[in-house]
Amino acid sequence: MQILLNILSDITYLLVYWLVGYRRSVTRTNLENSFPEKTAAERRKLERRYYRHMCDLLLEGLHNLAASKSSIKKRYHFSNPELVDRYYDQGKSVILMSAHYNNWEYMVSSIDFQLKHHGVGVGKPLSQKGIAKFVDQRRTRYGCEVVSKHNVREVVDYYENHHVPTAYMMLSDQAHSNPQKCYWTRFLNQDTGFLYGAEYFARKYEIPVLYYSVKKVRRGHYVVTFERICEHPSEAKQYDITEQYVRRLEHDINAEPEYWLWSHRRWKKKRPTNTTIMH
User: Is the pTM of this model over 0.85?
Assistant: First the structure.
C-alpha cells in the first residue's frame, strides 16, 4: 500500500508543482519572508521538498478515510501517551495544541484508540456540505468528534460541566479573520497574529495544556511526542501559554521547514496599529 501511495504522490507532485504551479507564488513569498538568510537556490530546493510533502499529505488523507485502526497506528505512533493518560486517570481534560505541520488527519482518526480521553478536534468546516459530511463521518468512525469553531464553546462547556475527560485538539496556527482578536508576536521574522482560543478555554476551565510535535520518520510514517506547556493555566501570565506554543512551533519549523503548510496566505492580515507585539 505504501509503495502505491508513494507512486501516486510522485505523479501528483509532477502535476501540482510543475504543470499547474498550485499557489507557487504564495509559497515562494512565504519562504522568502520567513527565511531571508537562505539563498534563492536554498529556498527553491525547500519549496520543492514542501510540495513533495504536500502531495504525500493529500494521498495520506485519502488513505486515512478507509484505513483500519492497525494501519493508522502503524503509521502514526505516540511515543509518550502516558503523559496525557495520567490526566485522564485524574479525571482531567487536556488541550492539545499543534499546527498544520506534518500529518494531522491521522491524529483526528486515531486519538480515541491511542489515548484514554475522548477526542474532540476543532476546525473550520469545509465549504462543500455534502463532501464535509462524508469526510467528517470517515474521520470520526473510531470515536473522535469533530466540531466547528462556531460551536466549540458549547461543546467544551458541555463536557467540562459533565466531567467527561476530553482531549481537545486545537491547531492554533491558522490566521484569524479578525486581526483585533489575535495574539500578536514575532514568528518566522514577521509580525504574526495567532488564535487565542486554546489559552482562553484553558484559563476558563483550568485545563492543562500540552503541545504535540509530529516528526516524519519516513514517507507515510510519523511519531508524535507530547510536551507539557502549562499544568495550571489560571496561574500563568496572560498570553504566556500561547507564546510558549508559538516558540515550540517555530522551533519545529526551523528544524524541518518543508513540513509546514506554506501554500496558505498566513500573513494576509496586518497587525493593527493599536496592538502591542509580544516577544
Answer: yes
